[in-house]
Design brief:
- Helix content is about 75%, strand content about 0%.
- It is mainly alpha-helical.
- It starts with a helix and ends in a 14-residue tail after the last helix.
């Protein structure tokens, strides 16, 4: 149960989507304007790249959180005599 509490606390202090977006903007803003035109990086393409980076970071964070939560729940289940839990998405394949 302490592990679940720690998981919840970690989730509360994890970077928000807003801070991830801000980091992506800062990263892309570091590309000099002269270089942007050389590599064909228009404002629209910068916005698309920022959106893709934020979505990727959020997906990676959610995947890691799901993996950690499943490990915690598996440990609890095994301690109580239940079989190992398995992840199955709602879409199911």
């Amino acid at each position: 149960m302490i592990r679940l509490l720690l998981f919840d606390l970690f989730h509360l202090v994890a970077p928000s989507a807003r801070s991830l977006r801000s980091a992506a903007v800062d990263d892309l803003a570091s590309i000099p304007p002269e270089l942007r035109s050389d590599i064909g990086m228009t404002d629209a393409r910068l916005a698309d790249e920022m959106h893709a980076r934020v979505c990727s970071a959020i997906a990676a964070r959610r995947e890691e959180e799901a993996r950690r939560l499943l490990e915690i729940l598996n440990r609890i289940a095994r301690n109580r005599g239940f079989p190992k839990l398995r992840w199955r998405s709602e879409g199911g394949s």
